[in-house]
Here is the input.
Amino acid sequence: MKKVLIMAIIAALAVAMIAPAAMAKEDNELRLAYVEWSCATAATNVVKTVLEDEMGYEVEIIPVSAAAMWQALSGGDVDGIVCAWLPVTQGHYLERFREDVIDLGPNTEGAGIGLVVPSYVDIDSIADMNEVADKFDGEIIGIDPGAGVMIKTEKVLEAYGLEDIELIEGSGAIMTATLKDRIDDGEWVAVTGWTPHWMFARWDLKYLEDPKGVYGESEAINTVVRKELKEEHPEVFAFLDNFEWSLAEIGQVMDWNASGSDPEESAERWLEENPERLAAWLGK
Here is the structure.
């Protein structure tokens, strides 16, 4: 109950920070929210670049928690998101706010979440983790509290009776830094992971099997917008409805970002190298 209350307060504060600025928006200004995951950062910056360079809008992108992102979208404080993991990871948010938003469907197919370990870890199933909990230092390295993969992982701990393992809250950056350190030392480590993510290109990793199906099947990353966007900015609505790309395409941008490129520069580079995709998004 205490954790739920804390998360509710954090979400409320985040939305409160967004709302005053939203009131002062001009007609050519748009606001996109995203969670600071590598895939969301890549997609949001690509969309921002198209809206600014090709359509003449001024776009503010706002990193927030998943809960605050959905709350801000449903309240009209932001115009859209391109990082809604559905139907499982963020499905509970869509159900809660369905009447206040428009789901434009997938922009990336084949996404997924689960527990990720280095390939040298010699178990293949979550069901076997308790027997080797000490090799994992009795912990799973997680990301920001409230993220869908964290909520599902809490359920995984219960479903598999992983009483000797604790889910550690943190961030995407802390998770990948810990993963790197443990791999460099040849140690076992389990992290909350998802596809697409640049870590799969960087290290030899695998998902642990989930025989109980707690994490669900393959997911999609959807675009969701506020309800009034179609009427107020039909050209923006049409572009966001057309926006879609593959795991390989988003993975390219994510890899550039992970290698030190500025996300805006990566977005501009990718769009320059993929004019056909850009033209399709703009309906040309």
